[in-house]
Amino acid sequence: MERHVKLTNGKKLRVCERGEGEHVVILVHGLTGNYKQMAYYQDALANNHRVICYDLRGRGLSDGADHPTSIDHHVGDLIDLLMTLNLNKVTLVGYSIGGYICAKVTALSSRVRSLILLDGAGVADYGQKDLILPSLQRLEKAYQSKADYIDFTKRTYEKLGVNWSRQLEEIARYETEVVGEKVVRHRSKAEVIKQDFDSFFDFHHEEVLPHITVPVLLVKAMGHIGAGRPLYFNESFSELEKIVPRINVLMTNANHFSLVFEEQKDVLNTIDRFLTNVIEDPSEV
After folding, report:
1. Superfamily the domain 2-124+200-284 falls into
2. The predicted structure's pLDDT at residue 280
3. pLDDT value at residue 285
4. How far is it, in rounded angstroms, from Cα 98 to Cα 85?
5. What is the DSSP string of 105-160?
6. Is 86 helix (H, G, I), strand (E, B) or coil?
7. Is the pLDDT of residue 231 over 90?
8. Between the CA atoms of 195, 201, 203 and 207, what dihedral angle is there, to the nearest 10 degrees?
9. Count of CB atoms situated within 10 Å of the CB of 50
10. I need a surface site. Which of 17, 206, 216, 219 has the fewest CB within 10 A?
């Protein structure tokens, strides 16, 4: 079921909800993505849980982002969403920027039962900009048609080591709109995305992490992006592993992008076991 949810701040988020389990899982997508980016995870988790995905503001069909925007603005929206939908004892799953958002919400809110970080909330480094900038280029261009945009996006992701799929094409169609004289553009503004990315470097791990006391599953995507490097190095997560007391870690050979754009059965199986333990006996996690 897809719908718009109006927050107490008056802004609207585009929400997709699936599954009817008692336990609620909320998925938060990546920097340039939208809720469809989390399809593999929503499909798998909806078998046993109520799973909610949504478009961050400035993405997809949600309202536009604040100016300037940052991770903290999205943190406020997620806390507002929990309150608006009256959700308690939820599991937050954050990918990329979603990891920072979910980590901070977990530190601030008593409504969170457990936290899953999909290659997110690590310590950012400036070498990441060379890996992120190619995915921003598609936001800055105008295209003659959706097919033109899809072709450009396909070539971009293949260079990043991601196999093109029907799911990726669906995401590409969803994130574009026709403007003006039949010109196709990405729904998100590059300036907004860059501001959000810059706020990665303003995330104060030493202030946030000590307040995360719930069970945590950290998934590290160690695969190289194209011929380069992982987005996050293993040591990028040292602060998380050192400070967060109840942390479980999975390392995968997937890279940062294939972690969500391709089905990762080992990751899904680990998440399933983690959630089962959280629900049945959280003291053992």
Report:
1. Alpha/Beta hydrolase fold, catalytic domain (3.40.50.1820)
2. 87
3. 66
4. 19
5. HHHH-TTEEEEEEES-SS---TTHHHHHHHHHHHHH--BSSHHHHHHHHHHHHHHT
6. coil
7. yes
8. -150
9. 18
10. 206
For 89, the token pair is 């004892």
Q: For 110-118, what is the mean pLDDT?
A: 98
Buried b vs exposed e over 151-165: b needs ≥16 C-beta within 10 Å?
eebbeebeebbbeee
- Packing angle, helices 71-84 and 97-108, rounded to 10: 60
Q: For residues 213 and 211, give the distance between their C-alpha atoms in angstroms, rounded to a whole number.
A: 6
List the structure tokens of 4. Answer: 């718009």
Q: Which two structure tokens, joined as six digits, stand for 43?
A: 């499909």
Look at residues 188, 243, 254, 190 and name the one whose alpha carbon lies nearest to residue 219: 254
- The structure tokens 């109840």 sit at 246
- List of residues 6+ apart from 27 with CB closer than 8 A: 35, 38, 41, 42, 45, 51, 52, 53, 93, 95, 98
Give the predicted TM-score (pTM) of the model.
0.97
8-state DSSP, 89: S
What are φ and ψ of residue 117, in 5° steps?
-110, 115
The pLDDT of residue 148 is above 70? yes
Task: For residue range 234-272, list pLDDT tens digits in order.
Answer: 999 999 999 999 999 999 999 999 999 999 999 999 999
- Tell me if 24 sits within 8 A of 72, measured CB to CB: no
Tokens, residue 64: 């536009």
Give the model's pLDDT for residue 284: 62
Q: Average pLDDT, stretch 108-130?
A: 96
pLDDT of residue 160: 84
pLDDT of residue 136: 85
